[in-house]
Amino acid sequence: NVQGLLKTGKLENVLNEIKNLKADICGISETFWNESNDFYSVLPSGEKFRIINSNAVKSRKGVACVLNHKMANSVSSVHLTSERVMAIKINTNPVNTFIIQVYAPNLDSPEDEKIKFYEEVRETLKYKTFQEVLVIMGDFNAKVGSSRIDNIVGPHGLGTINDAGRDLVNFCDEYNLFICNTWFYQKQSARYTWTGPNG
């Protein structure tokens, strides 16, 4: 979560972080951008990035995918489902990759908003073909706990599972998915992407 890209210099800071991480593709949540777009941005050091984003109808939303110069021309299709869900199809070998970037409602959001979010993800999945590799990334605003759950949640999760975590696990079970970052060890501070005002 970048907590908005409207301030001057914020996008450049994010792109520099992506460059330092040597990431080919990165997903962003909370862009706050109110228009969908597909554009290029060049850092002062010369690195070029392609940015594809879905608009934020309301504040504190909006998702984007950022691709470095190596991957910029590999996008074969774009699907902007909503301000919380988008997808890109990437030409990769030996099979293509279908990437969905999400930003789920938080725990305090109305139940119908949470239901709508998963409906939008399901709708987006209809664009994926059977042969393509699927990656769903972003912020699910969920805790899945630190106990293994079948082949979905590994032993390296965080905290105690919450309602959003149960929704995520049920969704993964429905589509035969697993939550990657729970299957390999990371230090505690790397197991979450957001810290509340009270720590």
From TrEMBL:
The protein's name in its UniProt record: Craniofacial development protein 2
Organism: Cacopsylla melanoneura
InterPro entries, sorted: Endo/exonu/phosph_ase_sf, Endo/exonuclease/phosphatase, Swc5/CFDP1/2
Organism ancestry: Eukaryota, Metazoa, Ecdysozoa, Arthropoda, Hexapoda
Gene3D superfamilies for this protein: Endonuclease/exonuclease/phosphatase
GO terms of molecular function: catalytic activity
Domain Endonuclease/exonuclease/phosphatase, residue spans: 1-160
